[in-house]
Amino acid sequence: MSQIILDHVTKQYGDVVVLNDFSAEFEDGEFITLLGPSGCGKTTMLRMIAGFEKPTSGTIKIDGVTVSSADTFVPPEKRGLGMVFQSYAVWPHMNVFDNVAYPLKIRKLPKQEIRDKVMRVLEAVHLDQYEKRLPSQLSGGQQQRVALGRALVAEPKVLLLDEPLSNLDAKLREEMRYEIKDIQRRLHINIVYVTHDQSEAMTMSDRVFVIYAGELQQVGSPVEIYRHPRNQFVADFVGKVNFLKGTSQDGKILLDGVSESLDYSGDLTGPVDVAIRPENARLVRGGGQLPCRILSEFFMGDENDCLVQVGERQIHVASDAASYGQFGAEEPVGLEIREFLVFPQSGEEFEQILT
C-alpha cells in the first residue's frame, strides 16, 4: 500500500504562489505524471512529497501517515521514498554495482543481502552484465538506469522522477520511457513523474495531472486529456492543435474569413474558437468542408506534414504520407474535418463535437 494524499496543499515564496490549493489522491500501483510548462509548480509538488520542501499550508499523507502538515514534518530520509533527478548524479569513481549498492551499505546490511538485492535490481534495469563498469564507460541511457537502480534498490514505497530523461537524445528517451514503464509494471511500484514533455506523459501514465501557473487544470487518463480537454490551454499543451475563430449560430459555425461553415449541434452560441488537431483534417481533391490552399509539404516518412491556408489563417495538417506531392500548385483542394473541439472565446469551457 503506497497511497499518497495531498489535501489543499499550497506553496508560497513571499507573495508568489507557486502551487495553489492542490488536492489529489495517487493510488497504490499508479503511474502518475505531473505535466506542465517550466515554472508551473510541478517540481515543487514533487519536492514537497519527497520532503525537500515544506508546504505553506495543507497536508500530505503517505500510507495513511501524515508526513507534512501545520504541526508535523517527517524528513526525507524517513519517508521511504526513492527519487531520480534530471542529472544522473552517479558516483564517477564507483562502478555500477557500488553505485547501486550505496544506499544499502549506508544501512550496513550484510554483504550477501546487499549483493542479492543489487543483482536483482541490476537485472530489472538490464545492467547485470555491466556491474563492474565505471559510469564513464556507459552511455547516457545506461547511466540513467544506474540512477534508477540506486533509487529502486532500497525498495521505496514510491519512486519520484523529476524529468529524468531530459538529458538524453530522442532515441534514448523513447527507449527509456518503455524501460521505466516496464519496471513499474513488474515491480508494481508507485511512480510520480514530472515532465513538460507530453509524449512522455501520454506513453507512460495511468493518470495525468496537467498544471499551469500553479493551478491544476485537468486530471485524467492520457486518452481523456487528449480527446476531452477541459480548456484551451490543455488542448494546446497536450498534442498539436490549430485554432480558428468563428461564430456559432443556427446549428453552424461560420469561420472568420471562410465562405464555408461547419455543422454544429452543440449549445454554444456567439464567438467561439474551433480547435482542429492536424490528424483530424484530411486533404481531398475538391469538396471537403473547408476550401484551402497548400503552402508547403514536408515528407516525414509516416505522414505528409502540410501547411495550408484556410481563409486568413495558416494551419497544419497531418495528411497521409502517400499524399505527398500528389496535389498540383493550383489544384482546388479541400479539408475534410473528422473531429473538432469548440470553445467559447473566453476559453473557460469546452465542448467536443464528432462529425
Can you put this structure into words, describing what you see?
With 355 residues, the chain is α+β, with helices and mostly antiparallel strands. It has two domains: 4-234, Rossmann fold (3-Layer(aba) Sandwich); 240-354, no CATH class. Helices cover 24% and strands 37% of the residues. It is built from eight helices and 21 strands. It has helices at residues 42-50, 96-106, 111-124, 140-152, 170-187, 198-204, 222-227, 232-237; strands at residues 4-13, 16-26, 31-35, 57-62, 65-68, 81-84, 158-162, 190-195, 207-212, 215-220, 242-249, 252-255, 261-263, 270-276, 281-285, 290-299, 303-310, 313-320, 333-337, 339-344, 351-354. It has a six-stranded mixed beta sheet with strand order 6-7-8-3-9-10, with helices on both faces. Strands 13-12-11-14-20-21 form a six-stranded antiparallel beta sheet. Strands 15-19-16-17-18 form a five-stranded antiparallel beta sheet, with no helix packed on it. Strand 17 and strand 18 (313-320) form a beta hairpin. Helix 2 (96-106) crosses helix 3 (111-124). The longest helix is centred in the middle third of the chain and has 18 residues, at 170-187. The chain is globular and about 75 Å long. The model has no long low-confidence stretch (mean pLDDT 89).
